[in-house]
Amino acid sequence: MSEQSRFKFIFFIVVTSSIGQIAAEVYIPSLPYISRDFQVSSSLTQLSIAVFLFGMSLPGILFGYISDFFGRRKILLIATTLSSIGTLLCLMAPNIYVLILGRFIQGLGFSGVGSLSRAILRDRMSGVELARYVSYLAMITVLAIDISPFIGGFLQEYFGWRPIFALLLAYNLLAIYLSYQFKDNLGTLLNSHLRLNRILHIAWESLREPLFFKYNLLAALTYAAVMALLTVASFLFEHGLGLSPAEFGATMLGLSFVYMFGAFANGKLLHYFTMAQLVRNGIVVMWLSCIFLIVDTLFFSLSYWGLVSFIALLWLGCSALFANNSSIAFSVINKNIGVSSALFNTVQILFAAIVTAAISAFSAYSTVPLSVFMVGICLGLTALFNWKIQSKEGIKL
């Protein structure tokens, strides 16, 4: 692959792999203001995040399976078009219920975009090479994702929340254009027959792989922790501490560099440690973030630097977990990669949707619910990691 082709490929992957997360996060600074404009509770507005995630979790396996027959490009075009329709509906929403419907349709489209991006990467590489590539790519992707609350906060402060969805629609149209330009890898082994009744069977075969099952669940719990934080973050920073939407966005942007540092360090540490060792280290850091939040909640009042320190530790833990969990999970997947990738994505998002819906039922202005959820997630991560399974011969973990 030439340097120019490599750049185009990286740009394509960054856009398609980040657009779902950008859609999830770009309007987070606006949540309190959407509640006020539509005169609804914070819980109902927060529910738009959970509904979006449920939408992302539903059809991903179907998109993945048909991409194993038709190829990635055609299905990407369908998925990005569907998400554009949902984004347009959010932009024009006259009430919170239409906004929630639009978020659900957005999620349906982005479920295909995210899973297919991972499948496209797996089409071209595997193992440590995939982990290293994902780590470096994560630095670019996370920066793109964490710029979104900054931009969203700026737009909210000066123009309101609807221009946020207008900008997201423009980004979505860029994804459609890049998907149209994308060429499928001719070396990818596609299915010769389309049998939709085999989707569940193929998904079950993937879940029967102990490594895939274990590290998929580890990734799902990690993503649930991130989305639990983001569900309450704007209320804690903006209403609890009095930050403006732009200041909240700038804070999240600054914290993105912590994640980028962690992802960069993970790529370097792969020269000296196995992926499983780095996963263990990531869980230790997640526990440190959890303990810090508990101590801060019990003994100190809500403070800017307390929240920032907690999030920084959380981001460091996540930076080690995401790339290595994904790479280990796919080390045993050599066929039906589209379905397996979609399944991996679906499990993550489904966990996050459940946790997001659950935390929305509690006060958005206190760190107590977040502390409780973080303890549960860290206990789950620890139990899963210590679950001993038999890895396949020749796979270096």
How would you characterize the overall build of this protein?
The protein has 397 residues and is mainly alpha-helical. The chain is built from 15 helices and no strands. The chain has helices at residues 3-25, 31-38, 42-57, 60-70, 72-91, 96-124, 127-158, 162-181, 199-207, 210-240, 245-269, 275-299, 304-329, 337-359, 368-385. Helix 7 packs antiparallel against helix 13 and helix 10 packs parallel to helix 14 (337-359). It is globular. It starts with a helix and ends in a 12-residue tail after the last helix. 52% of the residues are buried. The mean pLDDT is 84.
**Share of β-strand residues:** under 5%
Global shape: globular
> Low-confidence runs (pLDDT<50, min 5 residues)?
none
**End-to-end C-alpha gap:** 28 Å
Order of helix and strand elements from N to C terminus:
HHHHHHHHHHHHHHH
Give the biggest sheet.
none
Number of extended strands: 0
What's this model, at a glance?
This protein has about 400 residues and is an all-alpha fold. Helices cover about 80% and strands about 0% of the residues.
List the helices and strands and how they pair.
Blueprint: H1 3-25, H2 31-38, H3 42-57, H4 60-70, H5 72-91, H6 96-124, H7 127-158, H8 162-181, H9 199-207, H10 210-240, H11 245-269, H12 275-299, H13 304-329, H14 337-359, H15 368-385
Helix pairs in contact: 1-6, 1-7, 1-8, 2-3, 3-6, 3-14, 4-5, 4-6, 4-14, 5-6, 5-8, 6-14, 7-11, 7-13, 10-13, 10-14, 10-15, 11-13, 12-13, 12-15
